[in-house]
Amino acid sequence: MRQCLTYPSPSFFTRIIGLTNRHLSKEDAHLPHEPRIELYSGMDLSRGVKVEKKLGSVPGIADVTHVYFAGG
Predict the structure, then answer these.
(1) Number of domains forming the structure of the chain
(2) DSSP string of 19-58, one letter each residue
(3) Which of 11, 26, 29, 43 could form a disulfide with 19 if both were Cys (CB 3.0 to 4.6 A apart)?
């Protein structure tokens, strides 16, 4: 998410949405206090049918243009 603040340019992304399965705050994730960054926790996307409902709870999710996956 931090990379999206500057790459490919500092103004390229107007909104950066992060999804995490576990409950995690922006502070606990060590994310900068940047208004473009939004973090939604408790988003278990491995449960088939419920995925659409979970994603639907994120305001403006239909406007997403790029998706990056990082697992650890």
Answers:
(1) 1
(2) EESS---TTTTT----TTEEEEE---TTSTTHHHHHHHTS
(3) 43
pLDDT, tens only, 20-70? 998 999 999 999 999 999 999 988 888 676 888 888 899 999 999 998 988
For residue 10, the enclosing domain spans 3-63
Q: Say how many C-beta atoms besides its own lie within 10 A of residue 51's C-beta.
A: 13
Closest CA to 19 of 33, 3, 56: 56
The answer to whether 1 and 18 have CB atoms below 8 angstroms apart is yes
CA–CA dist 47, 27 (Å, integer)? 27
